[in-house]
Structures are given as C-alpha cells and as structure tokens.
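Notes, p. 3: input format for complexes.
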Amino acid sequence: MKLPRKVKRYCPTCKKHEEHRIVRVKGRSKSALGRIERRRKERIKKGYGSTPYPQPQKSHRHNVKSTKKLDLRYECASCKKQHASKQGIRIKKLELT
Ligand SMILES: [Zn+2]
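Output follows (97 residues plus zinc ion):
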C-alpha cells in the first residue's frame, strides 16, 4: 500500500490543521492491538495477580491472519509532537511516496 509521506491533519496541540509526517513505530501499540485483545488484557489487570491466565490453546484459527497491524504515528511539522492514529491498518508492505 502506498501512503503519502506528508499529510495534512488536525493537530490537537496546535489546535489547527498542520502538515504531518508519517512515522513508523516498531512494536505494537495500544491502537495496533485488537479491540478484544485489549479488553482481555484490561480484565486480567483487574485481578489479584496470583495466577497468570491460562495459555490459549492453539486452535484451527491460529495464524489465520497473514498481516500485522501497523502502528503509524503522525508527527506535526510545527510542534514536532507525535499523534497516533486510532486504528491500526493491516498492510503487508508499506511504501511512503
Ligand atoms: Zn502541532
């Protein structure tokens, strides 16, 4: 998938639309985690922490998804702050043009 290197987005710090640079972050962020997975982790955090949760058994749906969600950040050109996009996108290959 091809994405433009610079996009105009709303910057919450500057409170107006500014030019943003797309930054790729390694590792998964909260936004890149799935909705269900994130909820499960929050549920586990609420417990008393004596026993870890049971390891999920490998089902037939294991490794069904061939791509991973990318964690893209947008860096504001004027204040240099980074903002994460709300949803991760599933892309096999990212090209910044
Ligand atoms: Zn800004």
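The chain has a mean pLDDT of 79.
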